[in-house]
């Protein structure tokens, strides 16, 4: 039960007992039974859902690890967010905070960071936090499948003394701290399925619940003493358990294969991820080798319709490769690239991309010869919304005479086709780091450069942006984004949002982030 409502509950209990024992107490008339699964009578307005068990519970998988660096189960990863502090927290408005790091400095060249750790923080095993725990955890993150992509620029990390972590990078990056939203566990505990940490709740050996950690700052304000772990594996079983209030909070990816479509009397909060959907161009395709044609094509993407309708609200539209939630997003530049089929057609008209043979489709002139335009767009068929967005793009371009054929492929066939370059345009999704480092996407020989981009200027702009300090960062980012928008090596579409779903009026104060659904849990109120 919520600690904050115990006193109120006790008073209500006394009042109800006094009323029941009074001589004038009126006995209620018999009524039809209420459906406890719905919590309402027919025709009445939905209110607070009847709790099935009066405890706060999450779903998990007992056969898999509850170590954030070892688990492969997203349900278990959610549980670990209650147990582990992150080195840094980044809220949905890109404000950076930490209760672990008290101070930090960076060298003039931007390649050497020193973090000072608060060694007074208790850990669940009775020890106190040390720099060795933090450095160890960052090393684990660097080598893990889940987090390694963000640390491609990390050169080394070590601890010196009890309170100092040293981090070096291969090139200047004054936004390194934005990447450190990774969980901290006890030094040497990678092999433990339930490692000690310093977060608000702790594992209890042999038990299927988390216990509020009495050493946690603000522990008295935690909304419940225990968080129970329950196990449901099949899709229908999970949905039913949630709808019957046997589990009380779920995270849902609207655009993914795991979208379960929870219904009923619920409340939904969203957090924006750095998962960017975009179109990429094959630079060896003759038509797409022209910068002005690529620029025109990005005006044919109806991003708002894609995000709100085709992805069921599971994304936020973005015409730039930076999340619109970030203060670095330039709205003025983004508006220049908004959906505008008339302008797209006008650009093609001005560059002599026209219907030369009156067959209803445009052609272009290359090497003094008329060339047909028939573009092959590949998309993975196993992800919700992506195929629909690709088809809408194709239909819109067809309306102005540009032929784009959509080829939906299985995941394995899609990957093979990407790697062999047998496409003109590809629809992709990439998880960008929170500093929006585009190195791995746009630079020569980069791992995600499937389109054969060979313009060295992208690396120059990206590196200048990463090396920029607080005063010059916005301008450096604008110059990078302007160059990308003008040359259009890729066409950003949207950034995914995910849902945190609870029962209506059951939980207040939720402020989830992409790295911590339970961010600010001391501010939560849980009412059964």
Automatic annotation (TrEMBL):
Domain of life the protein comes from: Bacteria
Q: Which Gene3D superfamilies match?
A: Dipeptide-binding Protein, Domain 3, Periplasmic binding protein-like II
A single Gene Ontology CC term: ATP-binding cassette (ABC) transporter complex
Keyword Signal tagged: yes
Indicate the secretion signal residues: 1-25
Family annotation (InterPro entries): Peptide/Ni-bd, SBP_5, SBP_5_dom
Q: Does the keyword Signal apply?
A: yes
Q: Which UniProt keywords apply?
A: Signal, Transport
The GO molecular function terms of this record are: peptide transmembrane transporter activity
Q: Which GO terms describe its biological process?
A: peptide transport
Q: Which residues form the Solute-binding protein family domain?
A: 98-427
Tell me its family. Belongs to the bacterial solute-binding protein 5 family.
Protein name, UniProt field: ABC transporter substrate-binding protein
- Naturally occurring in which organism (per UniProt): Candidatus Scatomorpha intestinavium
């Amino acid at each position: 039960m919520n600690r904050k409502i115990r006193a109120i509950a006790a008073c209500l209990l006394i009042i109800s007992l006094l009323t029941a024992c009074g001589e004038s107490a009126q006995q209620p008339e018999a009524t039809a039974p209420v459906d406890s699964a719905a919590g309402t009578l027919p025709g009445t307005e939905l209110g607070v859902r009847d709790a099935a068990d009066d405890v706060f519970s999450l779903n998990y998988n007992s056969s898999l690890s509850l170590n954030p660096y070892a688990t492969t189960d997203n349900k278990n990863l959610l549980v670990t967010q209650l147990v582990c502090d992150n080195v840094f927290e980044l809220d949905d408005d890109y404000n950076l905070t930490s209760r672990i790091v008290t101070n930090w400095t960076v060298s003039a060249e931007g390649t050497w960071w020193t973090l000072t750790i608060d060694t007074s923080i208790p850990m669940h095993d009775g020890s106190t936090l040390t720099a060795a725990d933090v450095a160890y955890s960052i090393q684990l993150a660097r080598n893990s499948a889940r987090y390694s992509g963000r640390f491609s620029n990390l050169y080394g990390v070590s601890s010196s003394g009890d309170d100092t972590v040293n981090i070096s990078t291969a090139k200047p990056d004054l936004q390194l701290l934005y990447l450190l939203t990774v969980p901290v566990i006890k030094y040497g505990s990678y092999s433990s399925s339930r490692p000690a940490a310093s977060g608000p709740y702790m594992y209890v050996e042999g038990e299927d619940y988390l216990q509020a950690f009495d050493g946690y700052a603000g522990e008295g304000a935690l909304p419940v003493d225990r968080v129970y772990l329950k196990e449901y594996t099949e899709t229908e079983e999970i949905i039913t358990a949630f709808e019957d209030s046997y589990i009380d909070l779920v995270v849902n990816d609207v655009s993914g294969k795991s979208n379960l479509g929870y219904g009923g009397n619920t409340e939904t909060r969203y957090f924006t991820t750095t998962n960017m959907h975009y179109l990429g161009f094959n630079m060896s395709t003759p038509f797409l080798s022209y910068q002005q044609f690529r620029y025109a094509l990005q005006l044919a993407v109806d991003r708002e319709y894609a995000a709100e309708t085709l992805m069921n609200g599971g994304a936020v539209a973005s015409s730039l490769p930076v999340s619109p939630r970030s203060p670095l997003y330039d709205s003025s530049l983004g508006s220049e690239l908004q959906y505008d089929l008339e302008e797209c057609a006008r650009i093609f008209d001005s560059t002599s991309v026209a219907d030369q043979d009156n067959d209803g489709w445009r052609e272009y002139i290359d090497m003094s010869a008329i060339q047909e335009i028939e573009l092959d767009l590949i998309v993975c068929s196993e992800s919700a919304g992506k195929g629909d967005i690709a088809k809408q793009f194709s239909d819109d371009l067809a309306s102005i005479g540009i032929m784009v054929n959509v080829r939906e492929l299985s995941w394995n066939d899609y990957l093979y086709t990407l790697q062999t370059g047998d496409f003109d345009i590809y629809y992709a999704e990439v998880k960008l780091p929170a500093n929006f480092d585009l190195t791995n996407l746009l630079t020569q020989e980069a791992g995600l450069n499937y389109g054969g981009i060979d313009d060295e200027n992208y690396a120059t702009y990206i590196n200048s942006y990463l090396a920029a300090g607080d005063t010059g960062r916005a301008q450096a980012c604008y110059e990078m984004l302007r160059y990308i928008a003008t040359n259009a090596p890729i066409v950003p579409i949207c950034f995914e949002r995910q849902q945190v779903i609870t029962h209506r009026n059951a939980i207040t104060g939720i402020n989830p982030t992409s790295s911590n659904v339970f961010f600010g849990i001391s501010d939560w109120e849980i009412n059964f």
